[in-house]
Design a protein that fits this description.
Order of helices and strands: HHHHHHHHH
Strand content: under 5%
Number of helices: 9
Number of domains: 1
Amino acid sequence: MKRKVIFSSLLAGLVLLAGAILQPSTVQAANTFVGTATCAGCHDKEYSNFSKFAKKAHSDRSIKIMAKKLTPEEQKECYACHTTGYGQPGGFVSFEKTPDLAHAGCEVCHGPGSAHVDSGGKKDLIKGKGRMNVKECEKCHNSERVSNFRFKPMLFGGAH
């Protein structure tokens, strides 16, 4: 009987330990999308330029204009490039549920910003550490889309 108790306690301890080890780190779990407006507080110039000059700042309008002509599957394809974090944990879900992520904002290029914001602005907590290149843009702005939508890179003008 005593061996059963010891074995059961040991087994329970191993299960708890395995659960703790297999849990995602709190940094990963905490790094969520915060929306472009959150960036404005510390990055006023970039936010102002983005809002005025970048088509991405209003990319949700294209989807809304085209929605009646698109199937639900086609709309999902549009969401991948025209919204922030679509298909990712904490990303865009719908215009009603996640309006702050309805356009292609800062976090499309720089990644989810909550850890950066919570740290007071540590650069090593954002994708690219503030340095991006045109290659990063090709997920959405590939040769097919460039010719269809007359894409002009604004990496060094407009948003930044």
